[in-house]
Design brief:
260 residues; Rossmann fold; Helicase, Ruva Protein, domain 3; 11 helices; rRNA_Ade_Mease_Trfase_CS
């Protein structure tokens, strides 16, 4: 299924240290695989729910019969996290962790965004390039819609890089562990999040073009675009990656006539 299994014990210990499982934690693990992360988590976490799609791993995961471990043979993209938590009679937020398959990372990240209010923290091992985009800052080439969408709701941090040799089979690229800690209050309240996502996607579509041209390609008239740039004190030759999150929110509210 395109998975790369972590085999480096030192890296595993570092990941567990950052997850910091506590006795009152409910931890949901995405892709238990051979249990390299699953079993150590059960040693100190209150409860671990390991979700694994591949049926060939299920008997091995169940064999140890660990009391605080629940194994679910499910496709993570079809899991309703809210229902899962209700079934566990757990009302607090959960920690969501996992070594994400590269092919699944993008759709899964957007699923996390859709159900963001359920998680206190997400700790993911994923492709380094994706991790850098999530943590990207204004002015950086890594700064992208993913940076903005996540940083509005989470405090993001790239924790450390993992070399290909730490996996079996080794991937062709480096990986990175990231932490996404839920903010008590979002940086900004976005009324129409899907529309905001499409707006950002359009603005960043042609990164080499200036912001003004990209806004025009979104079918906003140039006089309206110039009015917005003047209103928010933005120079006409700015590129998308040069704007702060607050400036993007202000532009979005202006163009879609959303009152702040």
């Amino acid at each position: 299924m395109g998975q790369h299994f972590l085999k480096d014990d030192a890296v595993l210990k570092k990941i567990i240290l950052h997850i910091s499982p506590q006795k009152d934690d409910l931890i949901i693990e995405i892709g238990a695989g051979k249990g390299a992360l699953t079993f150590p988590l059960t040693a100190t976490a209150g409860k671990v729910i390991a979700i694994e799609k591949d049926p060939s791993f299920i008997p091995f995961l169940q064999k140890k019969n660990i009391p605080n471990l629940t194994i679910l043979e499910e496709d993570i993209m079809k899991v309703d996290f809210s229902k899962l938590m209700k079934a566990q009679n757990f009302k607090n937020k959960v920690k969501l962790v996992g070594n994400l398959p590269y092919s699944l990372s993008s759709p899964l990240l957007f699923k996390v965004l859709q159900e963001k209010e359920l998680f206190s923290e997400c700790i993911f091992l994923l492709q380094k390039e994706v991790a850098e985009r999530i943590c990207g800052q204004p002015g950086s080439k890594k700064y992208a819609p993913l940076s903005i969408l996540f940083q509005i709701h989470f405090s993001t941090k790239l924790l450390f890089i993992v070399a290909p040799g730490s996996f079996s089979p080794p991937p062709k690229v480096h990986s990175a562990l990231i932490s996404l800690k839920s903010r008590d209050i979002p940086l900004f309240l976005i009324e129409q999040e899907e529309l905001f996502r499409q707006f950002l996607k359009g603005v960043f579509k042609h990164r080499r073009k200036i912001l003004r041209k990209n806004l025009e390609k979104l079918n906003f008239l140039l006089p309206q675009v110039d009015e917005a740039l003047n209103k928010f004190g933005l120079e006409r030759n700015l590129r998308p990656e040069q704007l702060s999150i607050s400036q993007f929110v202000a532009l979005f509210n202006f163009f879609y006539q959303i009152e702040e």
